[in-house]
């Protein structure tokens, strides 16, 4: 989906596009990060 998603927290969290799982399933190379 191309709809933005947001979780109202502090600090703010937001996302646009496919999840990492959807990208891998589609065979697309991705470089994902998880920030502490």
Describe the overall structure.
With 36 residues, the protein is an alpha+beta fold. The chain has one domain (1-36). Helices cover 17% and strands 17% of the residues. It has one helix and two strands. The chain has a two-stranded antiparallel ribbon with strand order 1-2. The longest helix is centred in the middle third of the chain and has 6 residues, at 20-25. It is flat, with a radius of gyration of 12 Å. 0% of the residues are buried. The mean pLDDT is 79.
Quick tags:
36 residues; alpha+beta; two-stranded antiparallel sheet; 1 helix; flat
What is the gist of this entry?
Helices cover 17% and strands 17% of the residues. It is of the alpha+beta class.
Layout of helices and strands:
Layout: E1 5-7, E2 13-15, H1 20-25
Antiparallel strand pairs: 1-2
Q: Which residues sit in consecutive blocks of at least 5 with pLDDT less than 50?
A: none
Strand content: 15-25%
Helicity level: 10-25%
Structure summary, number of beta strands: 2
Instruction: Give the terminus-to-terminus CA distance.
Output: 26 Å
The coarse silhouette is flat
> Going across the major beta sheet, what is the strand order?
1-2
Helix and strand run? EEH
In DSSP terms (H or I, runs of 4 or more residues), the helix count works out at: 1
Global mean pLDDT: 79
Number of domains: 1
Q: Over all CA atoms, what is the radius of gyration?
A: 12 Å
Assembly annotation: single chain
Biggest beta sheet summary: 2 strands, antiparallel
Report the structural category.
Answer: alpha+beta
């Amino acid at each position: 989906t191309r709809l933005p998603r947001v979780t109202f927290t502090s600090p703010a969290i937001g996302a646009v596009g496919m999840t990492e799982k959807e990208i891998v399933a589609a065979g697309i190379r991705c470089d994902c990060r998880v920030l502490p």
